[in-house]
Automatic annotation (TrEMBL):
Signal peptide: none annotated. Transmembrane segments: none annotated. This is SRPBCC family protein. It comes from Microbacterium galbum. InterPro entries: START-like_dom_sf. Residues 144-167 are annotated as: Disordered. Residues 154-167 have a biased composition (Basic and acidic residues). It comes from the Bacteria. SUPFAM superfamilies: Bet v1-like (SSF55961).
Length: 167
């Protein structure tokens, strides 16, 4: 199981505001190239994100299912990567002073990645998830568009009355 940890200079609630906006998924998940749809009940347990990974012309349509949603502490996602298989990704957030510590743990559930030696899978996944946490930090610390308190698409401050940005 690959594990990455990062200290973020924001609250756990800021992190979960990013996670709850499914349209932001390709901005923080490395490899995701576009969103196709966000299930109406996202981020509730059982809700689905519809996205793609890769680059044209080698795009693979993928889905991610929310398995655990316990803001502002824990989310467990299950990405279904077509030929790559299914993974389980746990995101745990703990307050630390005025910031928080975010830990991502990822393990293969099905598919050819289960055949890789743990050291190989962990090395590749830790490298990718280090960048994933880096991107998540930018969004959570900076008040991502489409989150309460974040800037909207044209740089104005969002208000609680405004709907999340949906593209």
């Amino acid at each position: 199981m690959a594990r990455n940890v990062r200290l973020l200079h924001c609250t756990p609630e800021d992190v979960f505001r990013v996670l709850e906006n499914g349209w932001l998924y390709p901005l923080w998940v490395v490899g995701t190239s576009r969103m196709r749809d966000v299930g109406e009940s996202w981020p509730q347990v059982g809700a689905t994100l519809h996205h793609s990974f890769g680059s044209w012309p080698l795009l693979v349509n993928d889905t991610t299912i929310m398995r655990v949603w316990d803001p502002p502490h824990r989310a467990v996602l299950e990405p279904h990567g077509g030929p790559i298989g299914v993974a389980r990704v746990a995101i745990d957030v703990k307050r630390r002073g005025e910031g928080c510590v975010v830990r991502i743990q990822e393990e293969p559930v099905t598919g050819p990645t289960r055949l890789l030696p743990d050291t190989v899978f962990d090395a590749i996944t830790r490298w990718r998830n280090a960048e994933t946490l880096h991107r998540l930090a930018y969004l959570a610390e900076g008040g991502a568009p489409g989150t309460e308190g974040g800037a909207d698409a044209i740089g104005h401050e969002s208000t609680a009355e405004r709907e999340p940005i949906r593209r």
